[in-house]
User: What shape does this take?
Amino acid sequence: MGRGLERIINPTIKGNFMIRYFVFGLTLLFSSQAYSQTYNLTLAGASPGGLWSSIGLGIDRVIAKEYPGSTVTYQTSSGGLANAKNVSDKKVQLGIAADMELAAAYNGTGIFAGKPLKDLRVLFRTYSPSARFQVHYFLINKKVADQYSIRTFSDLKKNANNLTAVVNRAGNMDADISLAVYKMYGIDNFKNIIRAGGQEFTPLMKDRRVDILATGISFNDKRIREMQQSMDFVQLGMSENEANQIASLFSADTCQFKKNEHSWLKSDIWTVCVGTVVFAHKDMTNRDAYNITKAMMKNIKVYKNIHPALKKAFKDSDLSQSSVVSFHSGSIRAFAGSK
Assistant: This one.
């Protein structure tokens, strides 16, 4: 059959060829655009060093792998409260915050009273409360606890006037949790309460300048292990109901210490745990929110391998664990596509 006759009998051959060529061209175009997409993002974290710095590095490696030539710069700050304000003001694209910090900013409580930041949206969770990277300890020097027969918060209430306590600095919501627990038990009569930064806790305890430490810290953190070299502890715990009361005040969660996890524990006890999220302004485009979130989902091993604690405790499903603040619509689409 001649070509002229073939075109008369089947005139769609050329049309189909042109359609296929057009689709192929579009595929190449979009693939080229995806490959050439780069990001230059700033992630507001906390002080240099520590787990949050590692989280920043992990996110940077994820984005750089998914979008070659991209960078995520970790910017130090005073913490999640400051990060919420900076993201709301569009001074940085991304921020890290603990659940309690983001809740305070979004709901307009604490330093944000009357000025809620309703323009914040969560992209993904960086660790869950159950990972116990921020688990609340109440540790008493055992010699002091033995001297005053302190084994419970009720015992502490009767003898607090003999003890010097340390909590985190004013403005740090870790301290707010500590003080809320003391308030719940009616403990307001310490001989003295020192406000100090986390790096000061160890020397204060080791030098016997304080008798009881209350702080949210990683499970079995090296600072606790260092203190233990010079003293034994008595650890105070709450009931599950009491821990829930405190957790509900701070959009936190409850978790347990098992009696076999620390040599000084005689039984399982309940406490409060806090997770963290990465968030952005609601005006971030759906495309960018989707791309950033999807990159984390696809390269979760890269993120987890950045720190031994993350590798051990972070579950893939933690990325999409909800917070008091809604997910960005682009992130919702990314998570929905994985189901």
